Amino acid sequence: xxxxxxxxxxxxxxxxxxxxxxxxxxxxxxxxxxxxxxxxxxxxxxxxxxxxxxxxxxxxxxxxxxxxxxxxxxxxxxxxxxxxxxxxxxxxxxxxxxxxxxxxxxxxxxxxxxxxxxx
Length: 119
Hints:
Blueprint: E1 2-7, E2 10-13, E3 18-26, E4 31-39, E5 46-51, E6 57-59, E7 67-72, E8 77-82, E9 91-101, E10 104-109, E11 113-118
Parallel strand pairs: 2-11
Antiparallel strand pairs: 1-3, 3-8, 4-5, 4-9, 5-6, 7-8, 9-10, 9-11
C-alpha cells in the first residue's frame, strides 16, 4: 500500500500563487507516474499535471504556462507550483500515484486539499 498526504491548499486572490506538496510513504517501490488531479463542485475529476519516473511532464491545456509539476524522488514527494491563479482553478486538488507491480498499474489517491481562488 502507498499512502499519499497532501498539503499546501488554501485561499488566495486571483493572480496569486500556491504550492501544493504530496508526500508518498509505505510500499513506495516502482512508483511510475505521480500526478495531480482536481475536481470542482459538480464536475468530474480531471488530470492537471503528470510527472513520470523518467522525468517527463504533461499538463492540462488550461494550466500550461501557469502550473509546474516537479518530483523529488529522494523524498518521494511531488509538488505543484501554481502561479497566476484564476477563480476557475478553484477545486479540490488530489494527489495520485501509479505503482507498477509485475507490470500491472495500481492507483493510489490522497485525501485532497481545497484550493479556493477569489476574484
